[in-house]
Structures are given as C-alpha cells and as structure tokens.
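call fold(seq) -> tokens
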Amino acid sequence: MTPGHDDRRPAVDPAAGCAREPIHVPGSIQPHGHLLAFEGDGLGLAHASAAAPAALLVADVAALWGEPLECVFAGGPAEHLKHCLARLPERGPVPLGLCRSASGEAFQAVAHRSPDGFVVLEVEAVEGGAAEATTLEALYPGVRDAFGRLGRASSVEELAACAAAAVRGVTGFDRALVYRFEENWDGIVVAEDGDGRLPSYLGLRFPASDIPAQARRLYELNPQRLIADAGYAPVPILSARHGGPPLDLTYSALRSVSPVHLEYMRNMGTPASMSVSLLRPDGRLWGLISCHHATPRRVPFAARNACDLIGQMLSVRVTAREETRHAEERARLKGVEGRLLAHMAARGNFVDGLVAAPKDLTMLAGAAGAAVLADGGCVLVGRTPPETEVRRIAEWLARHGVEEAFETTSLASLMPEAEVFADAASGLLAVPISRLHASFLLWFRPEVVRTVSWGGDPRKMAEPASGQLNPRRSFEAWAETVRLRSAPWTAAEVEAVRDLRTAIVNIVLRAAEERAELTGRLERVNGELAAFSYSVSHDLRAPFRHITGYAELLRELEGDKLSDKGRRFLSVITEAAETAGRLVDALLNFSQMGRSSLANIEFDPAVLVAEVRRAMEPDLAGRRVEWRVASMPGAMRGDPAMLRQVFQNLLSNAVKYTRSRAEAVVEVGCEPAGDEFVFHVRDNGAGFDMAYAHKLFGVFQRLHRQEEFEGVGIGLANVRRIVERHGGRAWAEGKPGQGATFFFTLPRGGPPTDAR
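ret:
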C-alpha cells in the first residue's frame, strides 16, 4: 500500500482484483458525517444516510422520500441551501459554510453534483471550538507561510519538504509524506515531516499495484480524502428506489472504503489518514500528500481545503521546475541537433553526416552508443552490441510495427535474447526512418545495477486465506538489487530524437523527390535517344547494304581492269561497309530491346542453353571445347526469346575469348539464392582486369583490341538490359589470362508486374 490510503479490495491477483472493484459506489459512508441526495428540478429527496440526524429533518427519513428540499429540513437553512444547490457546478465539491439545526447544533455543509445526476449534500458536525479555529483568519497564516517557503525552495525535494511540513502544521497529523509517482506508477516517498510517533518511510518505494487505475482516477477527480477512524462502522445509504443502483460517490468527502483497506491501515499502525492529490496541468496525477496519525483524528473541511490549496501551490511550483528543466535540456539538445543537421547538409548522404559527428550523435540522447541502419548498411558508434545483434534488434522493432519513437530501460524484459549484451544495451531508444525498409536510428545505454528500498516486499501483495482477501501485514523496508535496467530516457531526449527523425525523413523525401524528377527527365531523354537510335539505325541499314552490293558488282564487272591497289581499296570498302552494317544491326537490336514488350511465360533454361550450343556448332569445327553444363531448375518464368539472346551472347563470348586455348572449358550453371536464381557462365580464356569491370556492360565498351577479338561492343550491354528488364542483376569477375565468370540473376517469381 501507499503511505496514504488506497480505496480498493486486494485480491490474490492484486491488479486484476482491484481493477474489478467498484470503489466509487460502496453504498455507505463514514460515520463522522451525514449525506442527503436530491433529484430533479424540485430537488426531491432520493437518498439519505441511515443516521441522518433528526435535528436536521422534519420527520423520519422513510416519510420524506420524494419531498422537496424545503419540506425536508427543519428550521431555517432550507432556503439558503436550495439557493446554493441550484447553482452547483458540474464537477467537484463546493463548501456551503456552516448551517445550524433547529437546536442550534453547527454543521459544515458541502455539496456536489454526482456523475449519475443527483445533487449530493454532505454535512459534518463541528466539534467544540472548531468553528472558530478553522476560519480563513485562523488558517491564513499557515497557508501564507507555506506560500513563502515554497517560493524560496530551489529543488523539487525542497518544495516537497516544505509542503509536508505545512500540511502537518495545519492538520496536526503525526506524519505527512509527499509521494511521487514514477512513469510505471510505482511511488517514491520524496519528502517527510513527522513527530517520531510513526516510522519513517522517506526514500521508500511502493509498487504500482498499491494504487490501481480506478483509484488513481478518483484521486484525479476528487483531490481530498479523509479517513478519520479506521475502526469505523460504515453507515449505509438508504434509497427511495428499493433495489435501485447505488449512489455514485466519486466526489463525496464521506465515501466509505473497503474493509480490507481499513485492515491495511490498522496493519500500518495508522488509524487515521488523509490525502491531497498533486495534479499536473493536464489533470494527471504527479503524486500525493499523504498524512497519518497514530490515533483517530478528525480534520475540519476548512483545514482540508487549506491543505488542498497548499497541494495546488506545490503542484504549480513542481510543474514550473520540471518545465524549466525540460526547456533547458531541450535548448541544449537543439544545439546538438543543429550541429548534426549541419553535418548532414555538408554531405550528400545523411548517414555520412550523422557518423561524421559521433559525439553529437550519442550526446543527442545521452547514450553510450548509437547505430544507423539504412539502405542495408549498419554503422555503429560508441559502445554498442555487435552488428549482428543490432540488426536483430532492428528486425524485432520492424516486426512489432514501431512507427514513432520507441523507448525502454529494460530491453531484456521485452526481448529476452538481449540479456547477453545488457552491458551495452539494457536501454534502447529508437526511431524508424523508413516505412518500407527496416531502417532505424538506435541509441543504447548500458545496465545500471542499483538497490531499491521498498516499503515491504512488493512480491507479496496479497495472500489467499480461506477464500478471503487479506492485505499485507509488513511494511518494513525491503531492499532489492535491480539488474538489466538502464538509466531512464528523459522526455527531452525522446523529443530530440523525434525531431531528428523528422528532419531526416524530410531530407530523404526531398532527395527522393529530386531523384524522381531526375528519373522522369532521364526517362524522357532515354525515350528520345531510343527513338533516335532506332530511326538512325533503321535508315542506315539500306545505304550500307547498297555500298556492299555495289562494291561486289564493281568487283565482278570491272575487277580485271582494276590495279592491285584498286582491288585492295575495294576490299577495304566492302569490309568496312559490312562492319558498319553489323554495327547498325546491333544498334537496332539494342534499341528494339528497350522498346519491345516483355513476355512472361514458362520456359526451361536448360533447353535454351542446348539450343544455343547447337547453333554454335558450325563455328566450332576444328576446336576442342569442353562443355560443363550443370543441372538447372525446371520451369521458370520470363521472356525465352530475350533470355536466349543472353545465353547466346555469353556463350559466344566464352568461346571467342578461349580461342587461344588448346582446350577451351566453358561452364554453365545455376543456383537458387533466396528469392532469385543466380546463373553463371565461366571460361578459361583471356579474362580481364577487375579495375575495368565497370566498363564491361556499357555500349561500345571493349577491354581488348579489335585486332585480337572481333565484335562491336554491344553484346554485354544487351545482356544487362534484358536481365534488368526481368528484375535481375548482371556482373562479372575475372583475372587477366585466367578466364572470366559472368553472372546474372532472375527473380523466382518472374519479371516484375511493371516490366514492359
């Protein structure tokens, strides 16, 4: 339990049991006051506590159901109360001051509108001289002193200590604590003021299950709570509608609590308790001021209001301190972010810009190490897990659909295999930089081993006993060594990495837009060039054929009249025209390769290889060529006519460049690799220098002289164009004098759907 009180009934599974308990409708109140509830515009009596004093009512409660307010009260307060009750706000209690019975007995009246639509009036008898002791004049000096001391405090801990002392001074409780909630709703006692009658809880932690979600919700809606005597007997609330739903007491000051909680208080040795909620500006709980007394103790409503005011002053001061600290940290991290953006702007690739400033990259999140995963690469900075583990973390994040910032101080609790590298990455802060690929920025923090002091063993929240639910009985400090956790990430650090992600995404999007624009322009230019190439190639075929034809006619008709030099010139003309014709045909074929549609049908690559080998047999007469053709996959999908040209070009090249070998060896094979097939054609021929490998697949690129090996330099360009249109890749490896290997891949599923 918390140092304050927890209005819920624990179960063997505390969280589940508490979550089910309807603590806002207990059906009873505490006996130090009385409750009446009215409904409708006429304020007819609908509910009343069983002990409503006869001095306040004109008759027995049973005779007053449905009667309007002015017919219920004895004496003169009815008109005043009716006037006040008609003007209640929608939420929260409103003090109505003192009212007196016909006998002159003084009562403090408080009213509110219940969530189920009733007007609820609660009255508490004023004891002795309390009416004078709890006036504004009596309480003002203590509140003013608290205001001044809070204004001079320089830290959250000092603020909390001032508030604890001020509240204890107003209420006279034996002990006042300030209890702060952590992000996971564990609570820590950050300040304490006491007279020594009760044990100290300063610095102790209490588990989140001590105050379940619905209890925290009530603390947010109703900031004051008093239990004057844990030994009280609950007073039932009677209703005009027998068997109807119980009255909602969310805003009630007298709401009864679970008998188990009362036993819990007795186990703590605190028969009386009071709490005041500390709320953030958005209405969420920051913590509680929790007071305890070694004997039963009543606190007048005015004093509770003064404590509520002190709590609000503390909340404002704490919020201001936290916001100032957050703003200072954000300003510092904005400077770091600005330096990183400058590095990225100075380089063409954002990854290069990030890793160019490793200290800034880790400083942005206060991390010991960082990793950048983008475009298939992984760059590590500082203290990180190995690259294989970093990639595994990225895959885990991608599987879990992380789209914004992800943070944890205990990665091993979410990803058990992370325990082996907890010394580098117990804490993880990550942001995705692509929704299409597993690209992330990751920051890591190492394990920080620490000892946590709990207010009792948090593992023993409740025990079953004969089917009954029982609270824990021990609140002695219990120490726990916490492992596999890092220091927590601050809100400023999380915001900083989110801002960096936004900047990177904008950079990537801008680059993608520029590439798309450039690609569009290139496609238009390539289309124009292809059309020009096709037109020129087509138009040049006839002139070159005419030159060759007329040169042959001239040789036949006038050859005997020509000199030896003339006949030699005529041979040069014929050879040049034939070479130019072959070049034009190759260009025309290359141009058509990009313009023709792509078939997507089943074919057998082994059949294509066999057809190409048969077609080459006439040119191999007199040569010794050893063919090593491995088994290949069965049916594949693609354009068999185009792929036949691929094998034709590669096999003819292999045969051509092994011409100088006494025995040529040509090997053809295919192996599956992931979602593609990898083909290779290997020979033991002339080979090439890898320094020039990038030229091989370009148009008109040759690595050997024309005198050594004939050709026009378009065959391999055709290979690459056909393979890429099928969604594959082409590359080569070789060594001078030791042969070459040409590779190309084809997707298992066939060409992409957008292939033309």
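The CA atoms of residues 629 and 668 lie 5 Å apart.
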